[in-house]
Each structure stands twice: as structure tokens, then as C-alpha cells.
Specification:
Radius of gyration: 20 Å
Number of strands: 9
Largest sheet: 6 strands, mixed
Number of helices: 16
Strand content: 5-15%
Length: 352
């Protein structure tokens, strides 16, 4: 699904929007061992939702204050699940509560690999029998335009000027292999380039999330998203420029090892093995610097998990909903399964 050609250079938009969506998952596994800048503050809005920001938030209903600073010990937490019975029981989960029709929660990988997009019978049955389909973000034209606009730097800026000649040349070589000419590359923000380089090679098909959406739409089911384009963009676009550059540099250095990692992820998903996927995440995070892992996971996973859990609740109240999110959002003490359990819902693995 190409990004609309709003700007004059069509080469920039030859890449699918799914490159950015996939990077939200892939970056968990390629997080570099480098520190990021600034403090992290936690605050709660009037609806009770927790947020993480770079500065104190005036008027927040409840504030715990600064929870992380560079150079300090990271918060006592586990970014992904502890391996165990719940983590080994597959990607599809039945979410139930007395008096409500059960719903289903599916962990996905944002990939178009046939080993991923070939639906398991239990997944197809649950989706077909559902009343509605819910995904991380609804990919409407407005969202596509937001992503397209956000990827482009201001006209007076140039990527080589930001990166320096040496790093820019490395990036240009890597992007040329993806079919992007240097002229178009110069207009992209560092995080956008990072997203593209962090993607596994596409087979030219729809990622699993869109396969599910397409199947639901063909059956006349209403579809909706848990997050807005602005919220997903904020994960990267909210990073400081220096953080974007540092992440990009590390990603370029790690490019040779990414194909093997992607293959491990695909095989684990094809085997319906959530435990292996979360263990890959644990292994990767343990190799990263504590500052980087903890700070970025607060932005990428914890904040989004709480937001998504709150927005999943109305669909569970309505009953018979089918919800699909990236599999790394499911497990762990801060994962969706744990958060929904705290709301009184029973989560049962739907394994055949």
C-alpha cells in the first residue's frame, strides 16, 4: 500500500507505509548499545491513562515525577515477558468475562512472509465468527498522509548535513540497495531511514495485519484502530535529532546480522511460539545498554500497552471482537494479557 504522492519526488513514496509500522516491532530487537539524552517523566491524564514524556507535564491529574535519567540505574522492570507457560501457549488468546461474549486477541508480526500470512485454522475461525475487527491503527487516507508528511524534513534541511559525510555515504549505500536514490534520501528524516533499513525484505504482499483486515472487510465486518497515526508517529518523531542519528548509525552497523534475526522471528511465529519471540526480545535487550533499553521501551511498549489496553476494554464490553496487535505487546508484567487480567478478564490460550 503506497504512501500518497503528495510531494514532488515520487521516489520517496515508493516505500510502503508498513515499513514504518514494522519498525515499531523490529526496533525492539536491534536497539543499539548507546545512551539516549534527557530524563523521562511519568504522568496520568484525567482519564487515568499513564504517559511518558521528556519533561514535567503541567496540569496532570497525578504525577510520579522523574522515573529515569541517563547514567542512573534503569527502573526495576522486565521489558518483555519472562519465559513461562503463558508465553509458550501461542499467539491467539480468548478474552472472557462473566456476562460477556468472549473476544479474541491475536499477536501478529507485521510481515508479509507467507509463513506468517497463512492463517491458522483457529485464527480464521475466530475472525470469521467475530462481529468486528480491531487493529493497532486503521490505515485510512488521513493516516497515510500524516505518515508521508512526517517522514520529510523541512526544505532547508539536508540529511547529509545532519549525519555528516561519512555516515551519510554508508546510509546512501544501504538505501540504494533498497532502490532509493540519493536525491530522495536527502529529504528524509533520520527516523524514517531507520524504519526502512530495519525492515525485512518484502515479498510484495500484504502484511499479516492487512491480510486480517482485508478478510474482515470482505465479510462486511466493521474495522477500527486502537491508536492514531499521530500517536504511532510520536514514538519516533518525538525523539531528539541526536537520538535519531545515533539509532540510525547503530542500525547501519548492525545491518549484516538482521537477515538472520528476521528469519528467527519468522520461524518462531510460524511455530506459534510466543515464548521464543519474547525470549529473542529478552536476549536482544540484555545486550543493549540499560539506559537505552529502559528509556526506549518506556516509549515503545509500556505507554502504548496501557493506551491500547484502555481502548480495548470497550470492545471487550461489546463482546465477540477480534483484536490484532504486535505479538510483543502481549506478554510480560506490562503486557496486554496482564493488563486485561487486572481489569477482571480471563485470558486463555486458544491453542489447537
Amino acid at each position: 500500500m503506497p504512501i500518497p504522492k503528495k510531494f514532488s519526488d515520487p521516489d520517496i513514496f515508493a516505500f510502503p507505509l508498513t515499513a514504518v509500522l514494522c519498525s515499531l516491532v523490529i526496533v525492539l530487537f536491534v536497539l543499539p548499545a548507546v545512551p539516549l539524552e534527557g530524563d523521562i517523566y511519568r504522568w496520568q491524564d484525567e482519564n487515568g491513562t499513564w504517559h511518558f514524556t521528556d519533561s514535567p507535564t503541567a496540569g496532570a491529574r497525578s504525577r510520579e515525577g522523574k522515573i529515569f535519567s541517563p547514567g542512573t540505574a534503569p527502573p526495576a522492570r522486565h521489558p518483555v515477558s519472562e519465559p513461562g507457560k503463558a508465553a509458550r501457549e501461542g499467539m491467539l488468546w480468548k478474552i472472557s468475562r462473566n456476562g460477556l461474549k468472549p473476544s479474541y486477541l491475536l499477536g501478529t508480526i507485521h510481515s508479509d512472509d507467507p509463513r506468517v500470512t497463512r492463517l491458522r485454522p483457529e485464527v480464521a475461525r475466530a475472525l470469521d465468527a467475530s462481529d468486528r475487527f480491531v487493529m493497532e491503527m486503521e490505515l485510512d487516507s488521513g493516516a497515510l498522509m500524516q505518515f508521508g508528511s512526517a517522514m520529510i524534513m523541512d526544505p532547508e534541511k539536508d540529511l547529509e548535513t545532519l549525519l555528516g559525510h561519512a555516515l551519510f555515504k554508508k546510509v546512501a549505500v544501504a538505501m540504494e540497495h533498497l532502490g532509493m536514490p540519493e536525491m530522495a534520501l536527502r529529504r528524509l528524516k533520520p527516523w524514517a531511514v531507520l524504519s526502512m533499513l530495519s525492515m525485512p525484505k518484502s515479498n510484495g504482499g500484504l502484511i499479516l495485519d492487512l491480510v486480517l483486515r482485508q478478510r474482515a472487510a470482505k465479510m462486511g465486518k466493521p474495522t477500527s484502530g486502537l491508536e492514531t497515526a499521530a500517536e504511532q508517529l510520536a514514538v519516533f518523531d518525538g525523539l531528539s535529532l541526536q537520538d535519531q542519528i545515533t539509532l540510525l548509525e547503530s542500525t547501519v552497523d548492525q545491518l549484516p546480522r538482521l537477515p538472520a534475526l528476521f528469519e528467527q522471528l519468522i520461524k518462531a511465529y510460524a511455530a506459534n511460539d510466543l515464548g521464543s519471540i519474547t525470549q529473542l526480545g529478552r536476549d536482544a535487550m540484555s545486550k543493549a545498554a540499560g539506559d537505552t533499553a529502559s528509556r526506549f521501551m518506556l516509549r515503545l511498549n509500556d505507554e502504548r500497552n496501557r493506551r491500547m489496553a484502555n481502548r480495548i476494554l470497550p470492545y471487550l464490553q461489546r463482546g465477540n471482537s477480534f483484536i490484532a496487535v504486535g505479538s510483543l505487546h502481549l506478554a510480560g508484567p506490562n503486557g496486554l494479557l496482564a493488563l486485561l487480567g487486572k481489569e477482571g478478564y480471563e485470558t486463555t490460550a486458544a491453542v489447537q
